[in-house]
Structure formats: C-alpha cells, structure tokens
Amino acid sequence: MIVPLSHVLAFAAAMFFMGLGCVLARRNLIMILIGVEVMINGAGLAFVGASAFWQQINGQVLVVLLMALTSAEVSISLAMVVYLQRRRGNLEADNYNEMHG
Amino acid sequence: MKPELLFLIPLLPLLGASVNGLFGLLLPRQVRGAIAVLAVAAAFGVCCLLWPLSQGGGTRTVLATWLASGGLQADFGILFDSLSASMALMVTGVSTLIHLYAVGYMHEEQDTARFFTLLNLFVFAMLTIVLADNLLLLFLGWEGVGFCSYGLIGFWYAKLENAGAGRKAFLVTRVGDVFLAVAVLWLFAALGQVGIPEVNGAAASLAPATLTAIVLLLLAGACGKSAQLPLMTWLPDAMAGPTPVSALIHAATMVTAGVYLLCRLFPLVSLSPTAMTVIAMTGAVTALYAGTCALAQREIKRVLAYSTMSQIGYMFIGVGVGTVSGAMFHLLTHAFFKALLFMGAGCVIHLCDGENDIYRMGGVRKRSPFIFWMFLAGGLCLAGMPFSGGFFSKDGILLAAFAQGPGWLRLVWFIGVATAFLTSLYTFRLLFLVFAGPARRKVHGHALPGLMRWTLPPLAILGLGAGLLNLPPLYGGHEALHHLLGPLAGELPAVDHQTEIALAVVAGGLFLLGGLAAWGRYRTFPGERPAWYKSFLLAGWQADLGVEWSILKPFRGMARFCYLGLDQSLIEGLLQGAAETCQKRGEALRRFTSGRVSTYLGGFAWGLVVLCLWFLISLVRH
Amino acid sequence: MATVLFYILASTALVATLLCVTRRNPVHAVVYLVNAFFALALLFYMLGAPLVAAWEVIIYAGAIMVLFLFIIMMLHLAPVEARPAPNWRRWGPVLLLSFVLVSSSVLLMSVDTAAHGGVGSFYASPRQFGYTLFKEYALAVEIVSFQLLFAAVGAYFVGREDWGEGRKGGRK
Lengths: 101, 622, 172
Hints:
The complex is a heterotrimer of chains A (101), B (622) and C (172). Chain A is mostly helical and 101 residues long. Chain A has helices spanning 5-25, 29-53, 58-88. Chain B starts with 7 loop residues before the first helix and ends with a helix.
C-alpha cells in the first residue's frame, strides 16, 4: 500500500469527528444532515483503506451499498426537512423539543 | 395526747386550702376568709396543746411511708422537738394574726378564694418545712413555699410587672433550690440516710472536704430562699404582692426558712469551720449591702424588704458564729416586729390612698395616731432600742460574734455593728418621712377596717416584750430559749460581763446616733435631691443589671446561638442542604432530557468517547 | 510520488471538510463538501477502488449534494447574494482547493495506466467488482433496491403539498 493503514485510518477518523462536531454543534437541520454525510464518508474511507490493506474487494462493495443507503436516507430526510419547514417555518433543531422534560 | 395528732398541725391549713380552692367560689365572701383564719388558728391551737410533746428529746411520728426503695427510706413524718415546736408556734401564731389582717385588707377584692387558698397552702408548705423529719419532705415543703410565693406575689397578675416579679422570685429561688437538691442527694449518697436526726448523727463520718462542700451547697440553697447575696434580687420586687403576703412570706416565714434549714442541720453545719465562716461572712456582707440600699429607697415596702434582707443577714451571722439560740431568738423577734411593720405599712398605704412613695407622704401621725404608735413600736424594735426585743436579739448575735476572738469573725462583728447604725438610721428616716411634719399630699380620708387595726397591738406587745424570751443573765434573765433548745442550741465561748456591758452600751449608743442623724436630716422634708449614689443605692447596687449582664445576656446569647447557629444553620442547613442538593442534581440531570436532538447526540458522542477510552486503556494494558 | 500525492489529497479533503462545517451559508457548505468528496474520490482511486471513486463522484457529489442544493434553494434557506462581484476572501479557499484537485487528477491521469498507475499493488477492476457484487452480495443488492423504493415512496409521501394542512391550523 502506498501509505500505512494507520494513516488512512487516522484520516478517516479525522473526517468522522469533524462530521460529528458538525452534527453536534450546528443548529440548522440542513447542516446536521451535511454532518451526517461527512461522517458516512469517513466510514467509507476506512472501509476502502481496509480493503486495500487486506487486498480484498468486500470493503469496496460495502462502500457502494453504503452509498445506496445514504441516498435513500438523504431523500427521506430532505423530504422531512421540507415538511418541517412548511409546518414550523424555521429549521432550528432547538425548537423541536416537544420531548423535553 | 397522741403523737399522731401532730399531723393536724400541717393538715388543718391544707384542709382550709382545699375547701377554699375547690368550693371557694361557691361560698359567700365572709365564709372564705373565716375558713382560712379558722384553719390556721386551729393549727395554732393544736400546736399549743401538743407543746409538751416537744419537751425532752422531742417526738417523732410517722403518718405513712412515702418512699421505700433500696436504701432510701423517706416517710411522711414529723419531728417535733423544741426547735421545730417553737418555730411552728411562731409560724401558726403570726399567720393567724396576718390572716385576720388579710380579711380586712382584702375587703374590696373579688378574687379572695384564690388568695386564701394560696395563703393556707403556703402555711401548710411552711409547716411541712418546719416539722419534716427527713430532708426529702423538707424539700417538698421548700418547693411548695416557692410555688405559693410565686402565686401570691403575682396575685394581681393582670399587671405584668406583678407577674414578672412573681416569676423572678420563683426563678431566683429555684437556683438556690438546685443547690439544695444537690446537697440532699449528696448526703444520701454519702450517708445512705435522709432522715434529719440520722444525718445529724452521722455527719461526723464525712470527710472534711465533702462536709464543707455539702454545707456550702446548703448555704446556697438557704441564700436563695432567704434572699441573701448573691440570690437576693427577687426580694425588693416581691413587694408587688399584697401587703399581707409581704408580711407573712417576706417577714416571718419563707425568708426565714433558710435560717431554719441551717439551724435544723446545725450538727452537720457546725463540723466545718470554713463553711461556718462563709455563712457568717455572707450574712454580714448582705446585712451591710441591704442596709445601704434601704437608706435610698422611696417605696415604703421596699425599705422594709431591704431591712428584712439585712436582719436575716444577722441571723446568718448568728448561725455562722455558732449560736443557734441567738439566731432563732432574732428570728422570732424579727418575725414579730417585721410583720407588725409590714402590716402597719399596709395601713399607712391605705390611709394615704394607695400612695407608696414616702417622699409624698408625711403627717400620717396626725391622721391616725394609733398607727403611728404601732409603727413606732415596730420601728424601735428594729432599730434596736435598748430593752426592746430587737435589742436583745441583735445584741446577742453581736456578742457571740465578738466572743469568737480575732480573725474573720471579728470583721463580721464590725460589719454587724456598722449595719446596726445603718439600721437605726434608715428606720428613723422612714419614721420621720412618713409620720412627721405636714402632709405633703392632699388625701381624702379612708377609714381603716377594724381587722387591720386590731391585729397590730398583739404583735407590738410581742415585739417589745420578746426580750423576755431569751433574757441574758446580765439583766437577770434565765435565757429561756437557750435552755429550751437544749443540745440544739450550740456551744458558745463565755464572755465576761465587762465586755457584755460595753457592747450593750455601744449598741445603745448607735441607736441614739442613728436616731439623732435622722432627726437632724429628715425631721423636715429636705426635698428630692437626686444624686448618683442615691440612684445607685436605689437600684440595689445595680444588682439586677449585674445579673442581666453576667447571666442573662450570655444565656440569651447561647440560646440564640443554639437556635440560629446550631438549629437553623447546622441542622436545618444539613437537611435543607441535602434536599437542595438532591433537587439541584435532579435539575442538572433534567437538562439531559431537553428534547433537543443535539443533546441526545451529544450523549452518543460522549458514550463513544468513553468506549474509545476503554479500548485505549485495555490496549495500553495489554 | 504516490505517497506525497496521497497526503496532499488527504489534507485537501480535510481542509475542505473543515471549511464546510464552519460555513454559515448552507450553499457554501455544500460546495465545500463537493470539493471534499472530489478529493475523496481521488483518494479512493489511489487506494485501488476506481469504481467506488467514480460512484463517489456520480452519486455523492453529483446526486446527493445536488439534492441538498435543490432543497436549500426551494425552501429559500440561504440568503440571496447581494454582491455579484467576487472578492478573494470568499472565493480564495475554494479556488485553491479546486486547483489542487484538478492538478492532482491531471497528474493521476497522466501516470501510465497500463501498470494501473503504480498506485498500489491492489486494484479492483470493474469486472471483479461486478462479479463479487452480484454473486456474493446479491441479496444485499435486492434489499437495497427495495429500500430505495421505500425511500422514494416515503419521500413523495412526506413531501406532499397537502400533508398536514388544515389539521392544526397549518404553520406554526
């Protein structure tokens, strides 16, 4: 492999945590979803790196399936974003706290 | 002449108290007073009848067993020897006269049922003290007189200062009672006995230090009831009660209970020379203190109250120097003339329309010469006019003090002599300010009820003639009381006749000197001239202030500390702090359920961190 | 050379992601994310996954991100640009990143493809990939296709115009 696996994993972890930070710190629903995308991509990178390390193709297959799943998920979440925008008029995650207490 | 009849002496007043207490409101007014008087008079009669029982070694009877448990054996018993018999005779006799006076005094009062109940109950408790054959029963009576005095001083409780005076008397004497209780318990622990003859007999077996300690405790108890230093602050304020109460309780009976206690336990007390000296010094210092205070008082009854304190100081001196007969002699004469003086003061106040302040009286002699002569008789006895009862008794004590030789007791004698001068001075001051000169205040004449007048002469005769009770051989007497008391009287060193005559002359001289000084200054009213020393003496050397600062303020401070500092801050703080902590932690935890997605995701993230740390640590370990 | 290129691309992706998550404007965030995905695609290629790299660009950057942009613009979530004239503070980073990406891809393409670009000993050819996918993971493919169907139906259902109107008064 061109770089040690640990480097690839470190890079993947960095992307994942950046995505996690985006999810936790941002209040806008769109940005939260973008954070989720970043996290998924980080995981995907780890899979590809592992597949390259162990010279097996299964990791990449998993990444492809992941992408498909992600598209499904994104479509539904964005449909829900549309619905919420119509109901509430804003997309602040803090306002959706009816489950508080 | 059955000994069991002795129990009628205390029980007859108790019966009178019960009848008045239970049915008094249903009975007509006259009947209430009559029951009270008859009860005490009957007790007096029984005492006279049974007098022979007290001769010889005395009689001891038991009515019933009170406590018998383990080593403790305390009965309802009476010890009727010459000491208790003479005291009981005085108590019942003077009480009868005072009860009669009280019927006249209270003729306008509504609440006579309560009054006569308490009065009779008081006589019962006092007789219990006098006749008890064991210390526990004596203590019972001791507490009883304390309670009755509280009830009687605060009789007109609707005025708050009267209730306060009653409470003050009760609390201050209570302090003394605690010491007495400790002494009784200690005696029981050390000797296994509470019976008075047994304690007196076994007293020699105690260690000297124990003995001194116990006697000092007894002295403290006696100081409480007899209003000696330092437990004397209650007596001047106790004059808030009706005059018959002052006459009975604060002249003749309750305040002498302390002296009686020491005389009763004299075989025990006399074994400790240190304690005896302390007793004598206490009496002397109190006598001097009270004498100086009496010089500056403005209320007629307060002068008499301080005078009582002073004279009881003399009795304590008598006990302290070893002469029980001298102390008892002075106790008897004092009872007569002080009761007379108080009753006369009540008459004077009645004549002056309720006026208490001697600066505003004057000229009472013209209004009622009879009262003047009665009061004069009592005053001369108090001041120690030669050949009156007061002269012999006071002189007897001073002689005994002088005869003990140089040392502390000589100082006691000197203080006693100085106080005698002061006594004469304030007595004549009182006489001049009240009776002499023109009336300083316009009053409407009020006739004195007959009962208030005619109960005075018997006391006057007794007071003036009481010298015959214990006339020293110098004047041709036989010292009847001394011989009566027999072995209880106390041993005395012999004094030669020269010294005796010299001292008598000194006493007479002081009497005249005091009278002349008072005549010079007070025969015409000098007007009110306030001065710092007068207000200092008026307030009793600021004793109340002293008590307030030394005891009451620290007590209140401690109570406030216990309340605010311990109870509120500590205990409630702990409990409330625990509750609040729980609540705050709950609130803090509540923030986790904010309903916001970011909070829950944050939970995920933290969980992830914990897992990573776990793996990291397990990785490092292996 | 491959190693150096890897690190360059990795840092590009990281910088782009960082810039993405810190933007206030969602459209800018999406653009930076596309940049990152592009870099990731190149990385995938260098790690011997050309098909995955292609799909990354096509599906992720090309479909999903475009969908994001559609929704953002449909719901008017981003403020309208007031200044048409560009300034370097706003265009600088993305241009730089794009330049890096373009030059890296050019570099990669210029490497000899016959030896699979010398980008590593492992290389998953599309034939191998398809073989594994449809032979070993056939069930997974079917399930994922079902899921896509559900997603489509659900997205249509949730995003209806007359969904929830007239129930509790509509907008809050």
